[in-house]
Amino acid sequence: MSLKMNSSNYYSLVLLLSLCLSAISYGQNKNKDGWVSLFNGKDLSGWEVGENASSFSVEKGKIKAAGDVAHLFYMGAIANHSFKNFEFKASVMTMPNSNSGIYFHTKYQESDWPMHGYEVQVNNSHTDWRRTGSLYAIADVKENYAADNEWYTEYIKVEGNRVIVKINDIVVVDYTEPENPLRDEGSKHRILSKGTFALQGHDPESVVYYKDIMVKLLPD
User: How many CB atoms are located within 10 Å of the residue 169 CB?
Assistant: First the structure.
C-alpha cells in the first residue's frame, strides 16, 4: 500500500506535530501555579541572537547582557514561541549606568532594534530618563522603583488590550491600548498582537543580568 500526501497535508501535519510538542513541553515544565521557565540556567538553549551574539552569555545560572547592540529572542518550544495573553516575570540586576529592555509580542531580527511589539525598560541609572518599568515611549516612568546592584522582579501582564507592568509587586504601568493607537512611521508596529520575548544588549558600557525567566499562559 502506498500513502500519498500533498504539500498542504504535509504542512498541516507538521503544524499539528509542532503544536503537540509545544503542549507537551509546556505541560512538562510548568509548576503547580502554571508558571513555566524559559531559561534552563545552564545555556542559551531555546534562545537565538543574530549579530553581536557575544553580547550574551551565561554566568553562574544567569544571562549576562554586555556588549554591542544585540537582542536575544526566545525561539523555543513553549507556546511555539508565540505568546498573546500571558504573565511574564524575571529577576533582573543592573550594574551602574546600564540600560537594557524586555520586548514582548516581537519577532526575531538578525540586527537593529526590534521593530515589532513593545519594550519594557530596564534602566535604573543610565542617562536615558525613561526608568525601569516604562512601556518605552508609550507609558514612561520617571521614578526609580529598583536600584543597581540589587535583584528585583520585573513583571509584565498582557490580557486583551491591557498591559500591566510591576516592579517588585508595585504597579508602575497600567496601559490600555486604544482601538486605533496613534503611531508614527517609525513605531507603527508598536502594537499588541502576539509574538515572542527578547532581551536587549544596549551598549558596551551596559551590564545587566537576568535569571528566573518565567511565563504563564492566559486564555486568548
Answer: 7
Whole-number average pLDDT of the chain:
91
Domain of 181, in residue numbers? 7-217
Which residue in 18, 63, 82 sits closest to 215, CA to CA?
A: 82
CA dist., res. 157 & res. 164, Å (int)? 5
d(CA 156, CA 163): 7
Q: Which three cell numbers stand for residue 144?
A: 526609580
Q: Is residue 204 part of a domain?
A: yes
3 state DSSP class of 28: helix
Q: Which of 26, 43, 44, 25 is CA-nearest to residue 35?
A: 26
Domain count of the fold of the chain = 1
User: Residue 159's closest CA among 217, 213, 205?
Assistant: 217
Judged on CB neighbours under 10 Å (0-12, 13-18, 19+), 17 is exposed
> If you average pLDDT over residues 193-209, what whole number do you get?
98
- Joined together, the cell numbers standing for residue 128 give 536615558
